[in-house]
Automatic annotation (TrEMBL):
Residues 203-339 form the Nudix hydrolase domain. This is Bifunctional nicotinamide-nucleotide adenylyltransferase/Nudix hydroxylase. It comes from Ramlibacter agri. The lineage of its organism: Bacteria, Pseudomonadati, Pseudomonadota, Betaproteobacteria, Burkholderiales. CDD domains: NUDIX_NadM_like. It comes from the Bacteria. Coiled coil: none annotated.
């Protein structure tokens, strides 16, 4: 078998509203190799204004835009966000290798902005840069989808930048009940962003989160407000002016769940603290959180109740968390994974 026949092209993207530049990238990959692996990033996330579609829906949009022959040559590989570049690269390579075996890999991409820096992180793969593919940005297309006076007006606004099949897909998808919820949440976020539009520098927010473990369970809340209303999250919130991050974490924990122990017990239970600062981790903007991991060992779990920003508080079995990944707000599942080792 020739080396060309054993080669695979790889395209990596989130495909959160397939547009013409992404479709052009996939077709360029199909010209370079017999088979193309399309890696769909941000897989398994809860629906949000930034990630309105499941990874399967993203794959469906790509398939619908391809010919029958092209579809037969494409494989879709979902990969979760790791918020750790080295780990994410390793996950992508492992997932691709599982599907392609020992085939030669050509990574196909184009350098549109800082989000394209990942192209330099796969030194074992040949890189094919297709060059500029126009100024099309998924974020702007999603904004248009959420702000149109009507669905048809929104679709008309993006029609020149997306395949016709994407318009048809979104037209059907928008009949599902979560579309209006996402529109409402996007508008609330936009209003929040507008408050800081006149600031001399883009704001950077500092928050705290608490991972509290007792035996085989961990304490979670269900968010009572946007963003992420109704999603699972860790107890936490914004740092106050006269607090350390530890003091803030303990205060937010008590305010949102009613969980309280003697200060000496909490200090003894603190096993680790870690900063999560990926620029895209929060829909609010640039938010740096300090997560605190408390392990109280085997004991009777105290009664808790959701209050303040939490509509509900409950103890959840750690073994159940992997199956709940798509119910978590922002990167809170990944924070739990960092401390509890939920994924491979």
């Amino acid at each position: 078998m020739s080396s060309a026949a054993s080669a695979w092209a790889v395209c990596i993207g989130r495909f959160q509203l397939l547009h013409d530049a992404q479709l052009a990238l996939v077709r360029a990959a199909l010209k370079l190799a017999p088979r193309c692996a399309v890696v769909v990033g941000s897989a398994y996330q809860a629906r949000s204004p930034r990630n309105p579609f499941t990874w399967q829906e993203c794959a469906d949009m790509v398939k619908l835009a391809l010919t029958e022959d092209e579809r037969a040559r494409v494989e879709f590989i979902p990969v979760r966000d790791a918020w750790d570049q080295a780990r994410w690269v390793a996950n992508v390579q492992a997932a691709v290798a599982q599907r392609t075996g020992q085939a030669r890999i050509v990574l196909v991409g184009h350098r549109k902005d800082a989000s394209s820096e990942y192209l330099d992180d796969f030194p074992g793969w040949a890189l094919h840069d297709v060059g500029r593919l126009g100024e099309i940005h998924g974020k702007a297309l999603r904004a248009a989808l959420y702000t149109g006076g009507s669905l048809e007006a929104a679709l008309a606004a993006i029609a020149s930048q997306v395949p016709p099949s994407t318009l048809d897909f979104v037209r059907s998808w928008a009949q599902l009940p979560f579309y209006e919820r996402l529109r409402s949440e996007w508008q609330e976020l936009a209003e929040e962003h507008d408050k800081w539009a006149s600031a001399p520098y883009p704001p950077v927010f500092v928050t705290v989160d608490a991972v509290v473990r007792i035996g085989d369970r961990v304490l979670l809340i269900r968010r009572g407000r946007a963003p992420g209303k109704g999603l699972l999250a860790l107890p936490g919130g914004f740092l106050e002016q006269r607090e350390t991050v530890y003091q803030s974490a303990v205060r937010e924990l008590e305010e949102e769940t009613g969980f309280r122990l003697l200060p000496s017990e909490m200090e003894h239970a603190l096993k680790a603290a870690r900063v999560f600062d990926h620029p895209d981790r929060s829909q609010r903007g640039r938010v740096i959180t300090h997560a605190h991991y408390f392990d109280l060992g085997e004991r009777l779990a105290p009664e808790i109740a959701g209050s303040d920003d939490a509509a509900e508080a409950r103890w959840v079995k750690i073994a159940d968390l992997p199956s709940m990944e798509d119910q978590f707000h922002d990167d809170h599942f990944h924070i739990l994974d960092a401390f509890l080792g939920l994924t491979d």
